């Protein structure tokens, strides 16, 4: 039994300092081990009992343990030892590898001072082992510095290692003859006798003092800031926290709220409604130590800092609690260290105040999941069509994976499986793997099949504003992109417009007139009590837009009941990325054909042949929607009469005479920006494309009576130009965009934004006035006279469904000096594309559309000045037509414009007041010279949002 651990043994250990110089343990443990007084020679150390090596006496020796390790001991000098002499302790060297032992040496008493030094004394190794060294401190005698002695050390008992014993040497007085003196074997020391070294030591001391003082100052300042921030931060109750920097969109009165972005598509749920595995999935995705830390994950911070410092993956270290704090507190959005400190403190205080389930509940109710869904409940409905309580493990992991980046950015596509399926699945596997690692999910229960996720809403432009005014927000977004505030196309350096609107903190004033908007919604919403379509077949849908002619301001807009779904009044993007949303305008488009004819010098008094005929290359005749012109004007119909009675044949001849490109050009000048072909349905930008390149190649002569689809918004804009005597103002929705100044609290205009009117005289005033003069005769013919004897110009239009005599689109458009309004009624059900009333009668332009238009206009124009619309002048060539001369005076033209169909055209032949039997309208097999079909009408849920094809049969009123 070895006796090294026994203090009563003669081999008891001397005091050996630990690895940090602190007493408290043995040589192997790094502390002090004191030899029992009187049991061993003072200051004597033995090294390894197995083999003897060199022996050096330095006024004392230290016991060196037989195992590998390092130990040091201060050994006092023996009484009477000579100044500067040192006795190097003996060491036995075993069969181990050589090592090194050092022992600091206390100086012998004597005159003078010397800096402590060291001397090396080689030691013979044990048999079979290489030589080692043991280092023993030496002292300089007199003014000289002590030398260095090295004594080999070795592990004992066959163990490899090294043992080191160190003895400190205090300065001594004496002569220069010691081993450490100038003549001694030791090297030169750096004691007080060297002025340069003394100066350097003094300088180092001053520097160290400055550094220490600065460090203390920084620590105290940091503690002060942290303490002040901690105690000055008020914890706001989570259920009272608003969304950060939400954007408010107001009507033109600056009071009525159109929308408040960021909290529309949100349903608050409690933690009991969120399955535990969904909570765990979120923790696995965002904060795996959520249930362990106190709101701030310091290990995560250190790890992230190291990765960022060493050039690894850039990463943050925000916990779920910190993320919640950032979402909840408006001033925690900037990326500064002060914000991070405050965020961490806020998270810690939240952790103190609320339980983990409460924090998780609040977090899952505010976090954004993409597709307009804030909170777990909205996300569950958006991606899986179910409530959060019914989510599976796999579905919960999908939603958890989205949180990191739900929408694409300039550098990453995000984790929406519809946009980035591969990385979405990788992220999903990461979440599930974390759940297994943390013990929240058994490996055997881990899902292997990625769940089916609902596709994004087809043909919709919205992002969560589910209200009848929601589409207004989409136009606000478009205008912000035009001003360069944001980008929806991934433009470098620009945030997405969706994110900017949600979190930008804007106050936006729109052109919407709250009273007019309410009046339009009351008349147009199909399911609203008292509306025009209430009680009618469920497939019927209305859309309407009202514009102020003198400014281009959109005063009222209705395209559906949700801005997140299909906009029936404007453009949409379908699942294939195609622009859809136009409707065939039918005879309502004749307003542009008429204007183009007058612009070409043709008088509205010119005569035209209205008898049906079959143009070359057409499969069917061009007809007049069942009207018998032989009973009216027949081959001598004036252009004015043909407009009022809505005959198609004269307008075909007219488009052929002036060229269909002139018709397209006039529509473009008025404000129609997009027109669709019909086979295949394809949109063309009339602003960018030259009309002569589009017609007749894309848009043939049937453009003259409205075969090709346009949007309700564009049609209203075109009418507004005619109402404004040919002066065009671009339809727009925003008056001003403001942000709050953080210093003053005042709202200031965002530079480069807001209403920017650029009126242009695009149509000659005399042309626009002549069109208006003809159109003002129509409302009376369609039971749409405005109240109080107001003058108004108007035009109806209808288009039939493919291959049937039944109508699919019905219009009433019109204006006075104050207001231009376009109304469309069609079907919202792809399985029921035709539009009939509750009695099974076809709906034409003079029925529900005219009723809706009149009701809205009467309400909207209350208090407005009455208009005095012009009368027909007959300017232009009255001999320009292809018709016959007027009948002799004894054979006057028959009065009346249209067949008597009753007040709502309910007595007309099949096809509304358009009659029947057209079956193609005189066009080719599909409608045109080469047989194009009428455009597939986009509808949600109808095979990618498209209805079955519709014939181009020109059926109107």
Molecular structure report:
The protein has 957 residues and is of the alpha+beta class. The chain is built from 21 helices and 22 strands. The relative contact order is 0.07. α2 crosses α9 (421-437), α4 packs across α6 and α12 runs antiparallel to α21. It is elongated and about 135 Å long. The strands form seven sheets. It has a five-stranded mixed sheet. The protein has a five-stranded antiparallel sheet with strand order 9-8-22-21-20, with helices on both faces. β3 (132-139) and β4 form a beta hairpin. The longest helix has 38 residues, at 195-232. Helices cover 26% and strands 11% of the residues.
> Biggest β-sheet: count, sense, barrel?
5 strands, mixed
Strand order of the largest sheet: 6-5-7-17-18
Q: Number of helical runs?
A: 21
Can you give the helix content as a percent range? 25-40%
What is the mean predicted local confidence, pLDDT?
A: 75
What overall form do the CA principal axes indicate?
A: elongated
**How large is the share of residues in beta strands?**
5-15%
The value of Rg in angstroms is 46 Å
Secondary structure class reads alpha+beta
Compute the separation of the termini in Å: 119 Å
Let me know the number of strands: 22
Low-confidence stretches: 1-192, 894-955
Summarize the entry for a quick read.
With 957 residues, the chain is α+β, with helices and mostly antiparallel strands. It has 21 helices and 22 strands.
